[in-house]
Structure formats: C-alpha cells, structure tokens
C-alpha cells in the first residue's frame, strides 16, 4: 500500500500520496534569516523571516522519515554578477549590503547545515537560482 496522508483543507479534504509529494523550502538562507545577514543590513530586519524556522525544523524532522521529497532553493548569482539586475546591485550598494561581497552569510543554508550533510545535491551551479534536490532522506 502506498503511504498517504489526508490534510484538512478548503474547499475539500486533500489526500496526498507521499511518494508523489514534495516540500519546497524557499530562501531559508542565513542572509535572509540571521542578524547581520543581507536582509538585516538592508534594514529589513529578520523578525518575520525567523518566525517559520522552528515550525519548519519540526516539519522537516518528520518528513525526513517519509518518502516525501524535500527541495531547498537559494538565491544565487553568477560569480561576475552578470545575471543580477543593475538596479538590485545599485540598491544593495547604497544600503551597504552589496550583493556579491565576500562573506559566508549567503552561501550557507540556515541552521548551518551544509546541503551535502543533509543528503542534498546542488543543481544548476552558476544559475540565478541554485536548486537542491533530496537524494535520500528515508
């Protein structure tokens, strides 16, 4: 029997086949969720971006024991920043949070757990959006 779960949703109950279900975690990077990171230096603060961390850690711990695929994305740009819009680069310079500046904040997934340690493989190196794919959470 294929594992399934039913989720009370509106307008009707949603039944998910776990082997055909994925969780997509978007931009949970230190740069967006940690004091001193890019978002904080831009003046955006991290109060709201930190709120889902605890519930997400609980959800991930549970899902890693199931056949659900877990996908993490992160923002990234080419080393020469040729794929970063000029207005975004200029805004980051004015805010003293320059995109592409040296430092580990934007290169480490939140919770200081490297993708390889989680069984993840980074895809599309050099693309604007680096995509990670689950490769063995069971």
Please provide a written account of the structure:
The protein is α+β, with helices and mostly antiparallel strands. It has one domain. Helices cover about 25% and strands about 20% of the residues. It has helices at about 30-35, 40, 45-50, 55-65, 85-95; strands spanning about 5, 15, 20-25, 70-75, 120-125, 130-135. The strands form two sheets. It has a four-stranded mixed β-sheet with strand order 3-4-6-5, with no helix packed on it. The longest helix is centred in the middle third of the chain and has 11 residues, at about 55-65. GO terms for molecular function: hydrolase activity.
Which class of secondary structure composition applies to the elements?
A: alpha+beta
Query: Any low-confidence stretches, pLDDT <50, length ≥5?
Result: 107-138
Task: List the total number of helices.
Answer: 5
Helix percent reads: 10-25%
Overall mean pLDDT score? 75
Strand content: 15-25%
Tally of discrete structural domains = 1
How far apart are the termini? 17 Å
Q: Main beta sheet, described?
A: 4 strands, mixed
Cα shape: elongated
Region (Disordered): 74-99
Organism: Vasconcelosia minhoensis LEGE 07310
Domain Isochorismatase-like: 21-106
Pfam families: Isochorismatase (PF00857)
């Amino acid at each position: 029997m294929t594992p399934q779960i039913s989720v009370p949703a509106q307008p009707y109950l949603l039944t998910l086949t776990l082997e055909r279900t994925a969780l997509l975690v978007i931009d949970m990077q230190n740069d967006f969720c940690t004091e001193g990171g890019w978002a904080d230096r831009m003046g955006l603060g991290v109060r709201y971006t930190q709120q889902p961390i605890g519930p997400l850690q609980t959800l991930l711990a549970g899902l890693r024991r199931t056949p659900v695929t877990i996908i993490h994305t992160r923002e990234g740009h080419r080393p020469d920043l040729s794929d970063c819009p000029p207005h975004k680069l200029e805004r980051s310079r004015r805010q003293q949070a320059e995109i592409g500046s040296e430092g580990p904040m934007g290169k480490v997934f939140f919770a200081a757990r490297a993708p390889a340690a989680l069984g993840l493989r980074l895809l599309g190196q050099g693309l604007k959006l680096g995509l990670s794919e689950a490769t063995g959470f069971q």
